[in-house]
Design goal:
2 strands, mainly alpha, two-stranded antiparallel sheet
Length: 254
């Protein structure tokens, strides 16, 4: 696996998830999403995620950005009924602002990236922050700052990998999820690929014994097929999901 060649494709996926999971009131929060989806549809990891990507694009084109925002709010910020919690601390520690928040802050301190607290309101261990942080790290690695490879590895293995399956499953199963059910399928497929990239195993479930299954084949066969497909398509994937600077600030490192 040539990891350097795969990084633009990985940045594209993390950029997509950032646009879909960061809480913001910006009217152009989904700007560029159609272009990203089209590129990924032309270079899918597998047939299941390809269909889900098409469903997201169709939803966006037919109902617009506001419909995606409304569904996001219904799932994560509705004042009525249960909402899905989106921080690593909740899933791993059982409380907000737990150990996982501190871990992410420590990783952040090792980089030139800083959270813009005026525009990025959610905690550092929220899914929106984590996927955007990963995007920024990959961007720095692509630009030649390979030392950030260690930070991205630790951030994924020690934080994201520990809880993301349960988060994705919750999105897939909630009654409020329509287009985000398709997002969950794509996210699940990409997370499986990331485990191949970082050579890390899926953690044992904490409570539930079942997780989302995107294919009827075995996990080993799905992983093998996924690795082959993404390596074949990575060369044609172009990075086109530059994120707004409002979320992060860059500082020179000492």
């Amino acid at each position: 696996m040539n990891k350097q060649e795969l990084n633009p494709a990985r940045a594209l996926y993390y950029g997509l998830f950032s646009k879909l999971f960061v809480f913001t009131e910006s009217e152009d929060r989904h700007e560029g999403i159609e272009e990203i989806l089209s590129i990924l549809i032309d270079n899918p990891i597998d047939s299941n995620s390809e269909e889900a990507l098409k469903e997201i694009r169709d939803f966006y084109l037919s109902k617009g950005s506001n419909a995606i925002s409304d569904e996001f709010d219904a799932i994560f910020h509705s004042p009525e009924g249960d909402v899905i919690r989106n921080t690593a601390s909740i899933y791993c520690d059982g409380v907000e602002s737990g150990k996982k928040t501190l871990e992410v802050k420590k990783f952040l301190a090792k980089t030139k990236i800083r959270r813009n607290e005026k525009t990025f309101k959610e905690p550092e261990d929220s899914v929106g922050f984590l996927v955007t942080f990963m995007y920024e790290l990959i961007e720095l690695i692509i630009m030649g700052e390979e030392s950030y490879g260690t930070v991205q590895h630790c951030l994924y293995v020690e934080v994201i990998n520990e809880f993301i399956d349960e988060f994705i499953e919750n999105i897939y199963e909630t009654e409020q999820s329509n287009v985000y059910k398709s997002v969950a399928v794509v996210f699940n497929t990409f997370i499986t690929f990331e485990r191949l990239y970082f050579d890390v195993q899926k953690p044992l479930p904490r409570v539930k014994e079942e997780s989302i299954s995107c294919e009827s084949i075995s996990d080993e066969e799905a992983a093998r097929r996924m690795k082959n497909r993404i390596e074949k398509s990575a060369a044609s994937l172009q990075q086109s999901c530059a994120l707004e600077d409002e979320y992060f600030e860059k500082h020179s490192e000492d």
